[in-house]
Each structure stands twice: as C-alpha cells, then as structure tokens.
Write a structure and sequence with these properties.
With 221 residues, the chain is an alpha/beta fold. The chain has a single domain, classed as Rossmann fold. 51% of the residues lie in helices and 14% in strands. It is built from nine helices and eight strands. A five-stranded parallel sheet has the order 2-6-1-7-8. A three-stranded antiparallel sheet has the order 3-4-5, with helices on one face. β3 and β4 form a beta hairpin. α3 runs parallel beside α5 and α4 runs parallel beside α8. The longest helix has 17 residues. It binds 2'-deoxycytidine-5'-monophosphate (DC). The site of 2'-deoxycytidine-5'-monophosphate has 14 residues, from α2, α4 and α8.
C-alpha cells in the first residue's frame, strides 16, 4: 500500500508531538519533529556565538552543520546527542526567533522535503500543511487554549522533575504564539484543507481516535 505523509500544525504545546508519536507507532510511520530542527539551529548559533538576526551567518552555519534526525526521535548535531539540550526554555524562544529568517526556513524546508519524499512520515510544525507538504492528503491543525497548554507543560515538567511555574510558562506560550503567528515568512496558520481539532477538553485517547477517523475519511486507510 502506498505510504502517504501526514501534516500536523498548531501552536506550541498543543500536543502535536505526542499525537504524532502515537500515530507513528500505530501506523508504522516515522515522526519528524520539525520544531526540533529549528531548535537545533538555535542551539548551534548559541554554541558558536552567532547572532540570531544575522541571516547570512546563520545560513552559512546551517550549510556547515551536520544535523541528523533519527527515526527514534533523537537529534544528533555534529555527532553529539542534543535531544535534551534543545528542550531548554531559552532554546524555545531562540528557535522561534531564528525561525523568522527566510534563509533559515528555506534551508530547513528543503531538508524536511528530502527526508519525507518517499512517504510514510508524520511531520509536525507550523508550516507543514501550508508550505512543506502542500499536497499531503491529511492535514491536521491542532489548537488548545493557552491555559490548557500551560497546564499540560507544567505537568510534563513536574513528571521530569523540572521546576515549573504556571504563570511564567503561560506568559512564554503567549509570547511565542504571537511571534510565530506574526512573522513575515510562513507565519503559523491553518491550511485551507486542514481539519481543526481543539484539544483543550479532550483526552489523549480522544484526540488519537479523532485523528485516526480523519485519516480514514481522507485516505480510506
Ligand atoms: O514545535 P516547537 O515548539 O519545538 O518549535 C520551536 C519553534 O520553531 C517554534 O516556536 C517556531 C519554530 N518552528 C517553525 O517556525 N516552523 C516549524 N515547522 C516548526 C517550528
């Protein structure tokens, strides 16, 4: 059976990655977390002391960096496992800032399209349905209220033993939403043919079931 690609977009902490992982497991597909790629660019810029506003140097840095997105979700940057480091709070905001650069976006979009060219991938991000996989047969736009998303992040952090302040996290989420929705190049927006799911009051099982229903409706699988 022909393997297609699935696009999942939405604001930060809406549950895109968690759902993409579950779907990948159920379908035997691979999850490509495109946010992790922008995070890796931000980390590399921090390590090399390159300004996030300097498009020319950032583009050169991306061309020289060895970024490997492993099928099991690990991210290897210049031979080093950076999967945990790229989740730091500071890196979240830096990734959102560097993602405004046109040159950074086109380099990463090209990598993403190359990785999933044969199908069988679930990509989650901000511009998947609108730019990276314009022709994907299944496009999901996942949203949730900023409060529900902040609450989930607090719980996730607590589970990992990380200190979490609800108000601070809520503020960060709102700031990043604004920045991701108002940038000039490919701002976060719902593709015309995407199906929106508001996950604020849904359990993980309910969201998974709804997405599987949409996949069936759109592809017959
Ligand atoms: O999904 P995330 O929170 O890990 O993404 C980090 C930042 O990267 C996000 O604030 C905006 C940017 N991003 C993007 O511009 N386009 C994508 N496809 C994925 C992420």
């Amino acid at each position: 059976m022909k393997r297609f690609n699935i696009a999942i977009d939405g604001p930060s902490a809406a549950g895109k990655s968690t759902i993409a992982d579950i779907l990948a497991g159920k379908m035997g597909y691979t999850h490509l977390d495109t946010g992790a790629m922008y995070r890796s660019v931000a980390l590399q810029a921090r390590n090399k002391g390159i300004s996030l506003e300097n498009e020319e140097d950032i583009v050169k840095m991306i061309a020289e960096m060895d970024l490997q997105m492993m099928a099991d979700g690990r991210v290897i940057l210049d031979g080093k496992d950076v999967s945990d480091t790229i989740r730091e709070n500071e890196i979240s905001m830096m990734a959102s800032t560097v993602s405004k650069l046109k040159g950074c976006r086109s380099a990463l979009v090209e990598m993403q399209q190359k990785i999933c060219k044969d199908g069988g991938y679930i990509l989650d991000g901000r511009d998947i349905g609108t730019v990276v996989l314009k022709d994907a047969p299944v496009k999901i736009y996942m949203v949730a209220s900023p409060e529900a998303r902040a609450q989930r992040r607090v719980l996730q952090n607590k589970e990992k033993g990380i200190e979490a302040d609800y108000d601070e996290i809520l503020e960060d989420i709102k700031k990043r939403d604004y920045q991701d929705m108002h940038r000039e190049v490919s701002p976060l927006s719902k593709a015309e043919d995407a199906v929106e799911i508001d996950t604020s009051d849904m359990t993980l099982d309910e969201v998974t079931e709804r997405v599987l229903e949409i996949i069936k409706e759109k592809t017959g699988d």
